[in-house]
Amino acid sequence: MKKHLLVVAVLSLSTVTIFSQSGVWTQKEDMGGEGRYGACGAAIGNKGYIGVGIGNGFLKDFWEYDAIANTWTQKADFSGGLRAFSTAFSIGSKLYVGMGLSWVGTSTQEAKDFWEYDPLQNKWTQKASYPGLGCQGNIGFSIGGKGYVGTGHYSTKVARDFWEYNPLTDTWKRKADFGGTERFGAVGFSIGNKGYVGTGSGYTGNVKDFWEYDPAINKWSQKADFSGVARLNAVAFSIGEKGYVGTGGSGSGSAYKDFWQYDPGLNQWLQQVDFAGAGYDACVSFNIGNKGYVGTGVAEHNFAKDLWSYTPAESVCSIPSNLNASKITNTAARLSWTITDTNVTNTRIAYRASNDSVWIIKQRNYSKEGINIDGLLPNTTYQWKLRSLCRTDSLYSIWVKGIDFKTLPDISNTIFISPNPVTSNTLTLRIKNIRSTNLLLTISDLQGRTFNKQKIIAVNGSINMTIDVLSLPKGTYVLKISSNTLDIQQAKFYKLH
User: Fold this and answer.
1) Are 291 and 308 in contact (CB under 8 A)?
2) pLDDT (tens digit, 9 = 90+) per residue, 395-427?
3) What is the spatial distance between Cα 110 and Cα 108, in angstroms, rounded to a whole number?
4) CA gap 22, 398 in Å, rounded
């Protein structure tokens, strides 16, 4: 299995922001039953559990996933009946599920019933009902033999109350209210003896603040805001000393697949590789050992049933250091780095303008040096990717830097293309104040393929000519002008048909 590590840095005039992308997603056996969203789940030992939710209607089936065998087994239906957007967590060898939106007769009702599932007996037992205000879209996690549930939505109210559940006495105890504003659809997870809650939606819309709860002193402390866009119905889990949050939706149709790591020690968010599954909003997550699992959910009106495991990257080869990108000319940059690990066999560069989807790959190997990239567009932010291959066959992809070319001269005042976008079979090219006489004109697409290459002559420091573009397919093109004494100048144009 290959592992991926990405490090991104964006270079501006005054600040440099560095964040990392790491880990690998691996597809597992699809969940049994039908695709769904708004399900709930948790793990006990090496088994994961997912159930209820909404598919072709409200559901009550429950399923067990064996992480070792990569198989699903249907278990006893949830005894609370048809249900969605419930809360689930595990304590010891038992699973606890409750609250949510239930389907009774011909309508929905918000529920506060709470149930314990015993995998050994495959049996559900009703417990003390949740006494809190919110009863759907709550957060839930466990710390030290106790369960914690809070926030949520009830009728027209949004909650911030927070409760501790003791399975030994089957009792609830109110704790300090959640430190942030009222919300539902937030995420919650625990790391060691601390709980973490954030994101969700409240009275003023989606939020991204993030809080730590210490049960020993019953106190909330605000931490660094979640670095992704504000959202609700995301997923979260912890692996070791790190937390992971991602997917979710806007509440108005948009779904997200970005994934982020939270480091409590550094109070810092690092972006990870995007979730690879089919459902992005209202998914289910849990962790088993050193892997997190995410599955089900909804994206573009499709109900998913796929399951994916996430493994954080483990260092096999050292990451290239001293990553740097600097300007050479108005249209060229120098990329450099340092590789000291002898396991690195080769590297290669890929780059793109930040608003383009196509990567331009330099196929040559650059093992321990840098590279000059020319033919860049001014006033454009570029993203760079340095990809290093180790002899261990572990692959690390490292985003190097983005360069802000908006600080460089805009040559659109020198090169004028009309019409742009091109709607006819020809375009008019005008250039003024040219120092050279004999010039080379090339027209290429964003993949670097050349469609037109010709010599042109400037008259009295200017060019005014018509160029036939009938044979060019619809798309985006770069027109370049160069000579022995003139830096490459270029402008982008678009052909609509």
Assistant:
1) no
2) 444 444 444 444 344 334 467 888 878 888 899
3) 7
4) 9
